[in-house]
Amino acid sequence: MSELSGPALSMPSLWLVVVLIAGAAATYVWRALGVALSGRIDPAGPVFEWVGCIAYGLLAALIARMIVMPVGPLEATDLGVRLVSAAVAVAAFYLARKSIFLGVTAGTLSLIGLTMAGVTLF
Amino acid sequence: MTETALPGDQSARRRMFFSAAKEAAGMPSLVLGASYVGFGSLVRESGIGLGLGLFSTLSAWALPGQVVLVELYGVGASLLVICLAVALTNARLMPMVITLMPLVHDPAVPRWRYYLYSHLVAVTAWAFSMRRCPDMPRPLRLPYFLGFAASLWIASLLGTALGFLLADSVPRSITLGLVFLNPIYFMLIFATDLRHRARAMALAFGAVLGPFFHTISHDWGLMFAGLIAGTVAFGGERLLRRRHV
């Protein structure tokens, strides 16, 4: 990769373009199928419930992995700080009557503050 | 066909398009835009250029799948794995389109156009349209959805660009906070949706299996964690229901 000159200016890597186009196609195909099949199948049926469960399971797996064992820049942060910040986000979310905005803000500020203070818990 | 194309109707539709766009430009755009700020920072920190980050938001425009893609790209997963994981994450779009279509369908609009419009179906615009459209005259429903979604789409692009540029210019610890926004945002989105028992179980299983499977395989781990967590939750919930628990 040629990111040394700054990724905003470098030539996009062809591989990444392929990945992004494939990802967009893997997303759009469901929307197009939805149009094609509307009125013909029941979206409340068990197949969709199963598919919905898989999507939830997959995203929960990703979220947990991003917090517990992140790949990339968050590796530089402390595991304890990430866990505490996630707990702060959940606490603020419920205290603020399920405000996603305030919860996310509190969790993010907690990570920034604790990281700046150089706190390490584990 | 001609009676829905009267000039008065056209201007009513245009007004609805813009009033929906204005409605979406408030809190919905702020929340979605902020979550895309996190994505923009993630893009920057994954060594992906701004142009391609914007291309992702423009062409995929379903945040969970975009984060899955960038994360799997970051661990060097194969194209097959990335496509399967993104497809599994986004399969929920199909039932969303299926439920929205009969609501916004306008017989005066040629069918092929719905294949273009369906690209704008994502959770926020969908949820608002499902709630608001039943009270509207049929010809105004599609413009409402399109105006609302167009506004959110623009907010998403602006958020992506802002997050990318911020990650470059703010102190390191703040950049880390912006990247951290991604998992926190989704965690709280799910916390609003725990009443559906099978999905809540899928979330719990997934959260436990995710890190564990990642240590087994960086490539396939995420997908198998999702498949197993989702399937066990789905099956388990049916079993519980059969026993009237």
UniProtKB/TrEMBL annotation, chain A:
Keyword entries, A-Z: Membrane, Transmembrane, Transmembrane helix
Keyword Membrane attributed: yes
Transmembrane parts of this sequence: 12-35, 47-67, 79-96, 101-121
Coiled coil: none
Highest taxon of the lineage: Bacteria
Pfam family, one: AzlD
Protein name: Branched-chain amino acid transport
Species in which this protein is naturally found: Skermanella aerolata
Lineage, uppermost ranks: Bacteria, Pseudomonadati, Pseudomonadota, Alphaproteobacteria, Rhodospirillales
